[in-house]
């Protein structure tokens, strides 16, 4: 099999990343050399490749599903919002500056060759390239200069699928309306629909799919069930606001983990491994009323540290977290907020200036124009998880330094300190730290013990659980999609 395919969606969080990841896994299991691609990704969940390039987390996971090494060409443009009207622009894995929405729209034309070259390079090296769109392909106000949806399919000769989420309702109107709004040349690239997240019996759809095809000429290639698996590796911020799944009961000894839902929360996937642990409940918190009395508080990453620090204080949550006495793990921007002075003299992340952190740890932060992008590994030298191996990735502009004698917490193999701890506060620059199974279990046990709860690890293997989830998605696609029709589209290309 050789060729390519573009997977679009009627909305954000319709299931584009889900379908591409599942197809990557399915084709890889069949012996096809397959690669993911997303021309332009707007997300605050990023990952770092082996060569120190920054790409969208979804493409990193899709490459994992495909059994290939993630690389910058799989996501040549990454937009990381810093405010409602501006984003840091990352091109081929390296930050190039912060642009307003208007400025970026004007810059798109110059970026089109970068996108096409990256895609062409992947197509030369892989049998199949599965491309992911962004948002909706029928945003008629954005079609001029669209780098990631159907204009890309037209330029690269790719057929397109459109995925709709039936769980939200209105899926047939959304699919029909998407095609109806398109100009003729782009409409011709849409060769199939996929209905996602159906709860219940597909027979309840009756002849709706056939009727939809009669009305717009596009066949439905499959109806995917709502899998009900633990939701990990989500990239879209909409997914963070879904109600958390029920936790298998351990009665009063369930470990309650509260994560602060900053307005610009970044790398929220750091919480995913905790969700897989039996007897651990993970929830996002936006207000003092929601905080309650957690056993562990996580201060996650942010793309606007000082702005989100203002929000943390202004909501009263900073004071409330301090009053709980709960164990705190602060990651990257969370570490910066937990410290002292935060200086950004050149306005790398927001307006130039400085602020004072919460003073929970005696560290200070200074922002620099170049970004730290690497994948260190080491150990917990002391404190929670002492002696356990830990690995992850760093992705930040803020350089953190201790200002007093402070115990190192995580230390890289080369001796570089990756974090510090003091009493109930443990903080680090390392994302992905909870993917290290023994370390994660030890930190949870530390938080539970502080609360007087009995919790013990159950031996969850996060890497195996992630691959199992990808296999379950691939199994669902194999069972519910017309694979012959899909293979024909991939080989045929766009009209």
Oligomer: single chain
Main CATH class of the largest domain: Alpha Beta
CATH architecture descriptor name of the largest domain: 3-Layer(aba) Sandwich
Helix content: 25-40%
Structural class call reads alpha/beta
Defining key terms:
495 residues, Rossmann fold, seven-stranded mixed sheet, 32% helix, globular
Task: Give the topology.
Elements: E1 3-9, H1 16-29, E2 34-37, E3 40-42, E4 46-48, E5 54-56, H2 57-66, E6 77-81, E7 86-91, E8 94-100, H3 101-125, E9 128-132, H4 150-156, E10 160-165, H5 171-181, H6 184-187, E11 190-198, H7 208-216, E12 220-225, H8 237-240, E13 255-260, E14 265-266, H9 272-275, E15 280-285, H10 288-291, E16 296-299, E17 301-302, H11 305-314, H12 317-324, E18 327-331, H13 333-338, E19 341-344, E20 353-356, E21 363-374, E22 377-380, E23 389-391, E24 394-402, E25 407-408, E26 410-412, E27 419-422, E28 425-428, H14 437-450, H15 462-480, H16 483-492
Parallel strand pairs: 1-9, 1-10, 2-9, 3-6, 10-11, 11-12, 13-15, 13-16, 16-18, 18-28, 19-21
Antiparallel strand pairs: 4-5, 6-7, 7-8, 14-17, 19-20, 21-24, 22-23, 22-26, 25-27, 27-28
Helix pairs in contact: 1-2, 1-15, 5-7
């Amino acid at each position: 099999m050789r060729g390519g395919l573009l997977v679009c969606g009627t909305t954000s969080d319709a299931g584009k990343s889900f379908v591409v990841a599942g197809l990557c896994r399915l084709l890889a299991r069949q012996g096809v050399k397959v690669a993911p691609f997303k021309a332009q990704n707007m997300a605050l969940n990023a990952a770092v490749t082996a060569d120190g390039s920054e790409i969208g987390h979804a493409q990193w996971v899709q490459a994992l599903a495909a059994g290939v090494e993630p690389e910058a060409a799989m996501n040549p443009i990454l937009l990381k919002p810093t405010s409602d009207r501006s984003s840091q622009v990352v091109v081929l894995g390296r930050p190039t500056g912060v642009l307003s929405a208007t400025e970026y729209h004007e810059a798109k034309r110059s970026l089109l060759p970068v996108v096409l070259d990256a895609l062409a390079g992947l197509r030369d090296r892989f049998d199949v390239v599965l491309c992911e769109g962004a948002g909706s392909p029928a945003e008629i106000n954005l079609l001029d200069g669209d780098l990631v949806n159907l204009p890309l399919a037209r330029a690269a000769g790719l057929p397109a699928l459109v995925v709709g989420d039936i769980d939200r309702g209105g899926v047939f109107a959304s699919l029909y309306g998407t095609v109806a709004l398109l100009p003729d040349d782009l409409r011709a690239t849409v060769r199939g629909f996929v209905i996602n997240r159906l709860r219940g019996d597909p027979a309840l759809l009756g002849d709706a799919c056939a009727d939809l095809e009669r009305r717009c000429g596009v066949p439905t290639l499959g109806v995917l069930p709502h899998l009900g698996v633990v939701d990990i590796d989500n990239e879209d911020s909409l997914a963070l606001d879904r109600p958390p799944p029920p936790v298998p009961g351990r009665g009063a000894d369930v470990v309650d983990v509260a994560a602060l839902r900053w307005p610009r929360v970044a790398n929220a996937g750091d919480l995913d491994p905790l969700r897989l642990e039996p007897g651990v409940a993970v929830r996002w918190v936006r207000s003092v009323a929601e905080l309650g009395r957690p056993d562990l508080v996580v201060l996650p990453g942010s793309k606007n540290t000082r702005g989100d620090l203002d929000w943390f204080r202004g909501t009263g949550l900073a004071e409330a977290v301090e009053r709980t006495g709960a164990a705190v793990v602060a990651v990257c921007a969370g570490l910066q907020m937990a410290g002292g002075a935060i200086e950004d003299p050149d306005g790398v992340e927001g307006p130039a200036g400085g602020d004072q952190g919460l003073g929970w740890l005696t560290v200070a932060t200074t922002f620099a124009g170049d970004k730290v992008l690497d994948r260190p590994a080491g150990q917990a030298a002391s404190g929670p998880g002492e002696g356990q191996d830990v690995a992850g990735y760093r992705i930040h502009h803020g350089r953190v330094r201790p200002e007093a004698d402070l115990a190192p917490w995580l230390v890289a193999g080369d001796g570089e300190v990756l974090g510090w701890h003091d009493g109930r506060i443990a903080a680090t620059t390392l994302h992905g730290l909870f993917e290290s199974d023994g370390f994660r279990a030890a930190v949870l046990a530390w938080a539970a013990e502080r609360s007087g709860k009995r919790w013990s690890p159950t031996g969850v293997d996060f890497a195996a659980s992630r691959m199992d989830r990808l296999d379950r998605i691939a199994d669902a696609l194999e069972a519910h999609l017309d694979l012959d029709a899909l293979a024909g589209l991939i080989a045929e290309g766009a009209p």
